[in-house]
Model the fold of this input.
Amino acid sequence: MKLNLKIWRQKNRDSKGKIATYTVKNISKDSSFLEMLDILNNDLLEKGEEPVAFDHDCREGICGMCSLYINGKAHGPDSRVTTCQLHMRKFNDGETIYIEPWRAKALPIIKDLVVDRTAFDRIQQAGGYISVNTSGNTQDANLTPIPKNDADKSFDAATCIGCAACVATCKNSSAMLFVSAKVSQYAMLPQGRVEAKERVINMVKQMDKEGFGNCSNTGACEIECPKGISLENIAKLNREYLSATLSTK
Amino acid sequence: MKKYYFYYTIGRKVLMALSGFFLMVFLLQHLAINLLSVISPNLFNEVSHFMGTNKLIQFILQPILISGLIFHLIMGAILDYKNRNSRNTNYSYNKNDNSTWVSRNMIITGTMVFLFICLHFYDFWIPEINTKFVNGDWSGLHHGEFKYFSELQHKFQDTWRVLLYSISFIFLSLHLLHGFQSSFQSVGIRNSSTTPLLKKLSIYYAILVPAGFVFIAIYHYIDQLII
Ligand code: HEM
Ligand code: SF4
Ligand code: FES
Done:
């Protein structure tokens, strides 16, 4: 395949970026999207040009590092996959492909297609944990009986990989789907109930502080989420927030 | 506790939804009374007179309604401003096919509804206030008869007004197509078993209620054409 690439290039956080055009040739339909970018970067290096910076790590859909807004969609045209799992057979020979970084004030661009997602880390640190004694006498979590249904729902929420596609696709750059997954995951388990109130308030506080937008319930996040995190979690987050704030002074 | 509702995103959306619920309930009541004008002009006159002169309604419920509306409008503008500011560079290519137009453009449909409310106040509310509070006339009479029905008829003789009213209600319908179900999500009521029902109810409410108002306007317009 021969492809026309329109890629966002930006030197650093403070510089102004712009779209640059490249052509890549001899791309196999079976290669992954990131492999296609690797090939482009090899070409660029050979020509003595600066390669395109992009994020990736596991390349098997579990770490959440790969991002990219491809042809107007988070993680490209395929549904329920991350960019590392996107294959070139989803594109046509001769096609023009737009590749842009996630865009949100709270996720500033570091370089080219790489964005700073530490805002998510700070939200997580604000309450996305349970406090347990790890001195060596830690009780086995399985000693606490948990209804299967709750355990399943909690696990579904826990599959969020923190990729931020939800923020990227949301017209408000809202992080509600991410935060709701992290809050629900604990809210449905007895171990998580203990600190549930402080958790939801502190995580929402941090989310606001980072400058993410409000939720308008457009539902775009749910559609683009590679892990299928459901909007139900946002309703759950809202419930948790309401009950926590109504019972806190 | 106030800070959790006025300053934090989720709290703001809860208040937005509550004011939305309140306005939607009011709209049902308004529609019910307007429908009387089609069924029985006399009954419409009497109920309108009651609504217009009852002290509880005039001095307690009406101010609450207007504050609710103003709150909804200002909070809507604040939310929209914050949301627009959460992204400084737009995508050069964005498909936007994962959400509906109505859900993305509540501020546009809302603003159109606001413009309509201005016209509506100019048509009915300001003359009412003028008669009651400036001229001190609480009788509701004009030439010895209740004026409400004849005033309504008079307004809906005008083709342009009927057209403007009808178009405005299309915008209200669009606003509610998203707003109705969204408000349940905002207060956390929605889950996988209630979502399909809420979506259905949303469509019924958002289409039937505005259609009811349009029907009334067109009914009176045609009614007077025939005479
Ligand atoms: C006066 C003009 C109005 C303006 C400027 C306005 C503006 C808005 C905006 C911007 C939103 C979206 C908030 C967000 O999701 O971030 C909204 C939501 C909503 N509006 Fe309005 N609106 C107006 C009138 C009305 C009226 C008359 C009704 C009902 C009869 C109504 C019912 C709703 C409902 C139910 C919601 C959904 C709340 C939620 O998502 O939780 N609005 N409005
Ligand atoms: S909710 Fe989905 S889209 Fe958002 S960060 Fe988690 S996995 Fe990514
Ligand atoms: S590189 Fe790990 S999810 Fe894509």
In short: The beta strands of chain B are 141-142, 145-146.
